[in-house]
């Protein structure tokens, strides 16, 4: 349970002063629901108040502080025009203080005529006149109480910066002194203030890098600690030692020799599986680096030892594809491979469940369905999760708890993640990297074209198809809703069918499973030559004959995502082309991003750049999975602080695995503050 000391922070902001229904929506849009949300809504920039005695000396566009005397009121003619208070500086220069809204009583009361006031706000030129909209007003003798630096917050329509500052003030008023969780020597070395002081300092002065770093550290530390608790709880469970005798693997007939990287990863996995503590390993490898073979070797290792293996894919399409691939690779071996997805119902499903329970099925491939309650394994020894970035820590935890004996866990991701992000999001796992591509890959040429040249693109597509090739046509992300993605894809398919007829297939995320599979199968079997798709084809789909991919609205995708999409081609024996269609008015960042895509095919480089340009959520694809991104720490903070946070969390757990000591208790508070409740829950009984 969350400690009482945090309760004021987790109170709803509807309890704040001055929060009416009109503010509810704008606040909700910003995700501000509780005091803690507001407290962590850190300023994005600041303005320095220019203190002056004379309007003539002030620049329009700047926030100024000045003593003014109201001399006249100008009530609005129409209901929508603002109420104006005319004021003068001590040299008689004029400025209008502008109030929107019908009620003129309030400005009249605030600014009685001929009484000097200290006024602060943004000076604007409006036609020939100067004006300040909704200024701060103080008695002149209190002018010094106004900070010289004003924080600027991220806002949504209906919220003003002043309003936000007021809410932040109320949230800070609720912030308690918290026990210190940071290791004392680190705290001293960094000269960091206490948590509460740091929070106050950052809101008062967004340029306060020291205080800012402390808050970032807290968040990173909570994340690291939570992952360590996951690791600790998983490794405390008894696993099964698995050492296959190699008889199945020896019979595999592969048309190629494994790369050095594949051999290394397989060795690391075998080493882990031979231990009684369950494996927690992340296999990172760019698109096409050959993760499937590594997974198969691990699965066969389990089967040889009389255990079962399960392989989890994020989508139906991928599950089916893995199923086919594994069966093909393992054909001729005495291994029973089955598939289970949410679509399998009735008799077939019953048969699969029976086979799993009695052990006649050795390897199960499927979607989430394979870890549901009803699915009982006779002896699950290994779980492989493909395309991890769609799953969060919570799902990993659920998985680890599925069997009475903890299965070994291998997580595979095709998103090459920069090291600091790997630590941040997969810090509980050991890492194997496939940093070597299988030989003989055909190059992919990447071109960027304006979408206005669509006709040329379609002509090029026609030539490609006439020449016996196949192509993907990926439709842009329209907003963030699947429905509109679907509409875009359907429209594109329709317009292409006008020219290419039945050669055009369509697949999108909202299609029914069987229809989706049928469309994929038709394309894989070359019955259709053009596959119009939304990003459902993003991960893993493998049709080697397809050597052209056209990506519409390329500037709207994350770089890592573009890289994934591009990885759909370049799989066969022909050189491939990736056409990135961009909008006509591109910003500088978009331009730079697309240029990078043209320049390199190195997934790790692209991921680093994506991290810099768009942030962690984009690289990880966490927006889709809903896993919370970091709120306080920037990528720079993560890069600078994750190692010490990790060491610190590690040391703490090593000394005090139950978090019972005084510092351990403080660390619990930190975990709750960042809503790692589930991780604290792992301590119980542990
Ligand atoms: P990933 O899942 O990592 O994107 P895959 O496992 O689908 O990659 O492998 C991509 C392609 O490379 C497959 O067609 C596979 O058969 C092939 N492949 C895998 N390992 C090798 C290797 N060592 N040498 C040559 N081809 C390989
Ligand atoms: Mg794959």
Automatic annotation (TrEMBL):
<keyword id="KW-0547">Nucleotide-binding</keyword>
<keyword id="KW-0378">Hydrolase</keyword>
<dbReference type="InterPro" id="IPR047112">
    <property type="entry name" value="RecG/Mfd"/>
</dbReference>
<dbReference type="InterPro" id="IPR012340">
    <property type="entry name" value="NA-bd_OB-fold"/>
</dbReference>
<dbReference type="Pfam" id="PF00271">
    <property type="entry name" value="Helicase_C"/>
</dbReference>
<feature type="domain" description="Helicase C-terminal">
    <location>
        <begin position="453"/>
        <end position="612"/>
    </location>
</feature>
<dbReference type="InterPro" id="IPR014001">
    <property type="entry name" value="Helicase_ATP-bd"/>
</dbReference>
<dbReference type="InterPro" id="IPR027417">
    <property type="entry name" value="P-loop_NTPase"/>
</dbReference>
<dbReference type="GO" id="GO:0003678">
    <property type="term" value="F:DNA helicase activity"/>
</dbReference>
<keyword id="KW-0347">Helicase</keyword>
<dbReference type="GO" id="GO:0016787">
    <property type="term" value="F:hydrolase activity"/>
</dbReference>
<keyword id="KW-0067">ATP-binding</keyword>
<feature type="domain" description="Helicase ATP-binding">
    <location>
        <begin position="272"/>
        <end position="434"/>
    </location>
</feature>
<dbReference type="InterPro" id="IPR001650">
    <property type="entry name" value="Helicase_C-like"/>
</dbReference>
<keyword id="KW-0227">DNA damage</keyword>
<keyword id="KW-0238">DNA-binding</keyword>
<dbReference type="InterPro" id="IPR045562">
    <property type="entry name" value="RecG_dom3_C"/>
</dbReference>
<dbReference type="Pfam" id="PF00270">
    <property type="entry name" value="DEAD"/>
</dbReference>
<dbReference type="Pfam" id="PF19833">
    <property type="entry name" value="RecG_dom3_C"/>
</dbReference>
<dbReference type="InterPro" id="IPR011545">
    <property type="entry name" value="DEAD/DEAH_box_helicase_dom"/>
</dbReference>
<keyword id="KW-0234">DNA repair</keyword>
<protein>
    <submittedName>
        <fullName>ATP-dependent DNA helicase RecG</fullName>
        <ecNumber>3.6.4.12</ecNumber>
    </submittedName>
</protein>
